[in-house]
Amino acid sequence: MPEIRQRPANTGRRAIQAGGGIDPHWHDRHQIVYAGxxxxxxxxxxxxxxxxxxxxxxxxxxTVHEHRAYGESVLHTVGLAExxxxxxxxxxxxxxxxxRELILTYTSAGExxxxxxxxxxxxxxxxxxxxxxxxxxxxRPTYLPxxxxxxxxxxxxxLREDPADNRTLTELGRVVGASERxxxxxxxxxxxxxxxxxxxxLRLHHALRLLAGxxxxxxxxxxxxxxSTSAFIDTFxxxxxxxxxxxxx
Length: 249
Prior knowledge:
By secondary structure, this protein is an alpha+beta fold. It has helices at 97-106, 117-135, 150-161, 169-176, 180-191, 195-212, 217-223, 229-240, and strands spanning 5-6, 12-16, 21-26, 30-43, 47-51, 55-59, 65-80, 91-94, 139-140, 144-145.
């Protein structure tokens, strides 16, 4: 098992190649993580969060997590001593056009860079506006929890291997040796959502990765199991706030 190290929650930006990332680590400060280009995922033992360019991910201090990038990505991070959101678990937050520009501008130079008094005063004002915008940012339901029960985890693994698998919970239960009733109960207790909700989240996560790799919307809809391209677009827009074919996806 790789060593889980503490890393500084710096403010700055870095390029990450497609498929690259940062191994499990934790910070002693809170952090906002945003992909100015590409798609970003943050994973903990509890599950994963995924964010295209319209979302940022809040990571509380002390949370062991890892990052993965899909498509050529530029990672922007903002380290915070305070907790302006009052959240004690990771969350995906809506990034408005104004908040996007604030994050990009604020992370253009690290906090540790020497600055003139005038420049530092400007950064403090910029930071204040950035925090104000963060407090106004609604959360988006992009969380994909990880199953703990071995029977449910086996079902989830089958669908991770093929998100387009349309077998019912009853049919999947026969494969893992559990009844539909048992698995439904485990979904609510273990995942905090129904089986259809979890499968939709899984498909959306996979769809974002495929889109970041340049796949067409129609092909992504087919590969992730939607009955039609229009059904995929409607679900995607409802969850992420924009269509899968938009530039920022």
